[in-house]
Backbone:
């Protein structure tokens, strides 16, 4: 099997597993044999093999878990889904491709090839979606997709599974919009994603029944098909471990049961309140947070790297008439489609409603100035937003109130420097709340953000509550020293402890984002990399995947 696998052509930005395994073929063959004799059955639900970072990371996990005795099987889509997270409007601007079921001609062949190039050389178990679907299930998936009334799709459940919600999420992700009202093919594409969601449900159920998996590992945990894998696994009692590329270079975040977007909001404060804490730890997190102004220690940065943060902000404020001698309240947006999918509604039904309401409210409060910073990811993210928040604002406010100002997404003005000039800042679902509170800036949470509920922010629970908070502004002072210290403790936990260092996963500037730089199979054995050990232990035993940076130190 291994000899035949060596003939697989490997994409240039992907690891050559056949060569790596050959550095200790005896170890690998022995590990496969031990795993087959009774190892923990682990499903690595890659599904979208053409998603470069996923293929690299999950093939590496397959190797590392096998070396630790697990019986690993991978699951890949082989072109059967009529809609998936690989389809993005930027690459497929004509939605007719999905409507007419032509993804196979445009995406699937390359996606299948890249996925197989990662898993075939391993010789581990391998399943495809189509092999786990019956003709009756395919027909049922199409019948459901065609018959559910449009108005009911996003709330549609199939045997207790939130299938419609995931289908809607996948569709909005494809269109890079927060709603489908202006998309002529919106309904047809939504029905393709609903069909794909149903097929994902059936295939995941069948493959779990076939192998008796006790745990499933897969990327992100949202959209189609990954969101459906999570839905099915949780219902069937299969432990879920989701992973995602985190913010610091060479690190990844792992969460149990659900995507980290949700678990970080419910994580108990006890998980970080009692950790060791010293001046050294404080200095480390302050230094890292400062580096985020420029993105020098991160995988990616959405912000421009300003030459002179003070000069550029002053030039902006002078040009728009922002009076820094009067109270300024900042407001940080999310990308419209992204915010609606990651965070449940709280005080407001969605982010657009929050922004519009905030402008109305500040128009009634002329003693305050509102400074809106549009998220740079609207134009610099992997999926450029096709529903810019400025367009939504202009629909209601062709002319902004005199006390409302906007920093557009393309501006080089430093978000951090701009917020430093604010009395307080309002957020909806951004992680920036972790950073703002660490800077001592009073922060108001209007939606669901990870900083909510940490004892650091004023959290709005209703529109009336939100307006009451606005009535109390300006705050007039920074957070006290004790609160700032608590905020930095949480930031340390968030950026250094929840993010697993894997220094052998190195940025490459290519489509796969990073490369596996190990040269020998032995490099992935237990004891070589603590972050990898913790991740694998978490997958196999359910233990918390938290790196003890306060004891081990923070890797560069």
Residues:
């Amino acid at each position: 099997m291994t000899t035949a696998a060596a003939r697989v052509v490997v994409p240039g930005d992907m690891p050559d597993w056949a060569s790596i395994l050959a550095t200790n073929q005896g170890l690998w063959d022995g590990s496969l044999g031990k795993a087959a004799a009774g190892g923990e059955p682990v499903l690595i639900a890659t599904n979208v093999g053409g998603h470069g970072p996923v293929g690299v990371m999950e093939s590496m996990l397959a190797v590392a878990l096998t070396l630790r005795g697990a019986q690993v099987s991978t699951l890949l889509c082989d072109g059967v889904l009529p809609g998936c997270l690989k389809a993005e409007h930027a690459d497929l601007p004509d939605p007719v491709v999905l409507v007419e079921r032509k993804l196979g001609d445009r995406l699937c062949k390359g996606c299948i090839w890249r996925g197989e190039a990662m898993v075939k050389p391993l010789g581990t178990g391998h399943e495809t979606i189509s092999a786990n679907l019956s003709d009756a299930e395919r027909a049922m998936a199409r019948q459901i997709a065609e018959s559910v009334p449009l108005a009911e799709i996003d709330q549609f459940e199939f045997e207790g599974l939130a299938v419609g919600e995931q289908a809607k999420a996948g569709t909005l992700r494809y269109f890079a919009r927060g709603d489908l009202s202006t998309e002529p093919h919106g309904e047809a594409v939504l029905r393709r994603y609903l069909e794909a969601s149903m097929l994902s449900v059936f295939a995941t159920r069948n493959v779990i029944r076939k192998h008796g998996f006790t745990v499933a590992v897969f990327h992100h945990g949202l959209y189609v098909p990954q969101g459906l894998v999570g839905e099915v696994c949780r219902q069937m009692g299969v432990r879920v471990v989701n992973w995602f590329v985190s913010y610091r270079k060479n690190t990844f975040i792992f969460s149990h049961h659900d995507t980290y977007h949700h678990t970080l909001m419910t994580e108990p404060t006890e998980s970080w309140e009692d950790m060791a804490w010293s001046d050294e730890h404080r200095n480390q997190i302050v230094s890292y947070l400062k580096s985020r102004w420029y993105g020098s220690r991160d995988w990616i940065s959405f912000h421009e790297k300003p030459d002179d943060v003070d000069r550029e902000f002053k030039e902006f404020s002078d040009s728009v008439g922002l009076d820094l001698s009067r109270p300024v309240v900042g407001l940080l947006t999310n990308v419209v489609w992204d915010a609606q999918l990651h965070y449940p509604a709280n005080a407001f039904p969605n982010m657009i409603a929050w922004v519009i309401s905030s402008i109305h409210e500040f128009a009634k409060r002329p003693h305050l100035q509102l400074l809106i910073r549009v998220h740079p990811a609207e134009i610099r993210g992997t999926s450029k937003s096709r529903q810019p928040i400025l367009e939504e604002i202009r629909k209601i406010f062709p002319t902004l109130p005199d006390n409302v100002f906007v920093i557009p997404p393309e501006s080089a003005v430093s978000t951090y420097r701009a917020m430093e000039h604010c009395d307080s800042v309002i957020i909806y679902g951004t992680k920036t709340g972790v950073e703002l509170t660490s800077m001592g800036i009073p922060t108001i949470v209007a939606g669901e953000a990870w900083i909510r509920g940490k004892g650091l922010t004023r959290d709005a629970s209703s529109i009336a509550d939100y307006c009451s908070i606005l009535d109390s502004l300006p705050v007039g002072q920074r957070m006290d020293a004790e609160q700032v210290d608590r905020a930095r403790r949480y930031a340390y936990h968030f950026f250094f402890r929840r993010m697993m260092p894997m220094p052998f996963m190195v940025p490459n500037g290519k489509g796969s984002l990073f490369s596996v730089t190990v040269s020998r199979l032995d490099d992935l054995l237990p004891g070589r990399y603590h972050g990898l050990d913790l991740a694998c232990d978490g997958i196999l035993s359910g233990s918390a995947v938290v790196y003890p940076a306060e004891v081990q130190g923070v890797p560069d």
Observations:
- The longest strand covers residues 41-47.
- The chain has a mean pLDDT of 93.
